[in-house]
Amino acid sequence: MSAKPMTPEAQEPANPELLALARRDTADPLVLGSPDAPVVLIEYSDFQCPFCGRFARETKPALVRDYVDKGILRIEWRDFPVFGAESDQAARAGWAAGRQNRFWRLHDEAYAEPRRRNAGDFGEDDHLATARQAGVEGLARFEKDMASDAAHQAVTRESDEGYGIGVTSTPAFLINGRPVLGAQPTDVFTDVIDEAAEQARQQEDGDE
Length: 208
Hints:
- This protein has helices at about 15-20, 50-70, 85-100, 105-110, 125-135, 140-145, 150-165, 185-205; strands at about 30, 40-45, 75-80, 170-175, 180.
- With about 210 residues, it is α+β, with helices and mostly antiparallel strands.
- It is globular, with a radius of gyration of 17 Å.
- It holds the Pfam family Thioredoxin_4.
- This is Thioredoxin domain-containing protein.
């Protein structure tokens, strides 16, 4: 059974098949928040995407402060490189940094300011510099991991997942199975998260 494709109607109720995409893997280094959080936000992003950068700089910090740190929200990253070879390299760099528990620091460094797309800003030398800034200590291991088949397979698996549910552009989000498309204002995310948290609470109360 295939999942229902994403559509722009962000007000649609949660799709159970999309809800089931939350992995809640305790060993996944590309996540923020508790695996037991009542709300899971899945983010399909490209490091070259300017709107993904806007979300990373303007919205994610507020969500981490107000929801992740309070145990309400879990953010699960999915690589969805759509802008060519540099996007794919950046995705593999993120995966490699995650092998040394530095994914989110590299994420924040990569998105710290707008960059040019497909103009060399995400070349090999840049990834090494960003990895250093992110505190990746084993740079030789980082380069090896970045070039590995495992990195390629991980990125392909996640992008295939996105295409399978109808993602066509970045950023795209699922919040407890409910699609939110694009770098929407922060209050759009908080409204959906609040509603999802309340629905989860009511369901838990009903199960007791």
